[in-house]
Amino acid sequence: MKRIALCVLLATLAVVSVFASGAAEKGTPVAASASDSRYAKDQTLKMVYNREISEWNYLTYSAAGDWSNYIDNLVEYDKYGIVRGALAESWTVSDDGLVYTFKIRKGVAWQYSDGSKYGQDVKAQDWVTSAKYVLDPKNAAGTADYMFTIKGAKAYYQALAAGEQADFSTVGVKALDDYTLEFTLESRTSYFLSTLTFNWGYPTNADYLAAMGDNFGLSPNDFLYNGAYLVEAFEPEFYRYDVKNPLYWDKDNVFIERIENTYNAEAETLAPELFLRGQINYAKIPTAMVDDWLATPEKAQYLQPLTAERTTYWYAVNFWPTYDAKYDPENWLIAANNLNFRKALYYGVNRTAICSVFDARNPEQYMLSTITPSNFAAAGGKDYTQMGGLENYTLDNQFNPELAKDYMTKAVAELKAVGCKFPIICYMPYRTSDTAQTNVAQVVEQQLENLFGKDVMDIVIEGYPRTDYKNLTGRIGNDSFMLQWWGPDFLDPVTYTEPNKLGQKYSYIYMADGVAEAATAEDGKKGNDGGYWKNYIYDQMVDAAKAETDDVARFEKMAEAEAWLIENAYVVPVGTLAGTGYAASYLDPTEHMNAYFGACMYRYKGQHILATALNSQTFAEAMAKWSEERTEALKDSI
Question: Residues 118, 121, 122, 126: is their CA dihedral positive or negative?
Answer without folding.
Answer: negative
